[in-house]
Amino acid sequence: DDMKKIHLTFLWLAIVAAFTACKNEVDDVFDKSSAQRATEAIATCRQTLVGATNGWVMEYYGDTQYGGYNVLAKFDDNSLVTVQNEAYQSNKTFTSHFKLEQSQGVILSFDGYNDAFHYFSDPNNPDGIGDNGKGMLGDFEFRVLKVSADSILLRGKKHYSYVVMKPLKEGASWKDYLDKAKQREQDMNYTAYDLHLGDKEYRVKKSYRMLSFTDPETGDVQEMPYLQTAEGMKLYQPLTFGGKTITAFNYSADDKWLDPLDKTVMLTPYIPTLFEQITTTPWYVAYSNLGTFAKPYWDTLKNNAANVNGEEITMAVIGSIKLNNKQKGPAFGLSLMSGRYAAVYTFSYEKVSDSRITLWYNGKMELDGDYYARNGNYPVATIPFGDKDAKRTFTLSTDNMKAPTYITLTDESDPTNVIKLMKNYISMPFNN
Description:
Blueprint: H1 2-51, E1 56-61, E2 68-75, E3 80-85, E4 94-97, E5 99-102, E6 106-109, E7 141-147, E8 152-156, E9 162-167, H2 174-187, E10 192-197, E11 200-207, E12 210-214, E13 221-228, E14 232-241, E15 244-250, E16 257-259, E17 262-270, H3 274-280, E18 282-284, H4 295-307, E19 313-321, E20 331-338, E21 341-353, E22 356-367, H5 369-376, E23 392-398, E24 406-411, E25 418-422
Antiparallel strand pairs: 1-2, 1-9, 2-3, 3-4, 5-6, 6-7, 7-8, 8-9, 10-11, 10-17, 11-12, 12-13, 13-14, 14-15, 16-17, 18-19, 19-20, 20-21, 21-22, 22-23, 23-24, 24-25
């Protein structure tokens, strides 16, 4: 028994000693290795960033509803980055500080304010894109997921969109790179398109750099955020639909834009009539674009809003729009954001011709429309567009049928009732 106890004691001591030795060795190696790996990862990333002597092309995405943008960035040994983008003062470069640090992997941070880069992350976007306090929901801190001399993959630390970086060829002009993409965007800039997937066809809408179409069988909306390049439209990520995978649409002068990986996938431009445009897409109201007939009614709307909990109209839309998920689908009419709430007053319409429409407010309401009708008489703002007892027929006109920036409604019975609706988003209509 004593021999057995001695054997067990030695065995236990041997196990403890072995475990302790092993543990210390692993800890020592791991600690050293972990710190070393972190230092080396940062050094490799810095060396790669600085090593692209003509800078990088960043395929930058904030919230994907706005699509992607070309951002050129050159990093130097003094932790300075020079940035130029196509969306904001595209002929200028802006220089600021950047840093690399370790936080569960390498973090690349554009920590010095840069007009060209923070355009996407500024909570109040300089061009009024996105909601106040949110902007385009872009990031300026990124997790570095992959690094090589050919590409760097980043992911936004806060909003999680992916950003791909590729080195710009030596000697290539930054201005030429952006100009070519801009020219191609003009070539491909239509309000709507037809998507051909083999023998199937779908009508595609565009908002910012987001293409979307509806699956007629399920009613589900398929979204294709994209980046504009000199070649065409490059999708944020491939979309598989109807047995086809869509990756990009390369421009061709014959207006048949094929996916480079599948020639049975094609996008063609479609030019809708003004009647179609106003009844199927949103158009934004600015008070300054109302005629003398409409302004008094909208003055009343503004005053009534102020009398309802001191609210303010933050957005006004004529046309077809879905404001939130409480709506089954887009509503055609006057849609108002008031404070944090939404009121919708629907219109009926008749087509007179491709450029003439008869409108009237039909008394139907959605979302918080009833509350604001009872407490603030918001439907007063619909009067310039007609009601059941006084339908109004308007002539529609625009600046560019291919890609209109506005539609003007001219009341055929009252020349003072002229209303100009804008394609681009307008925040705070009474301030514009």
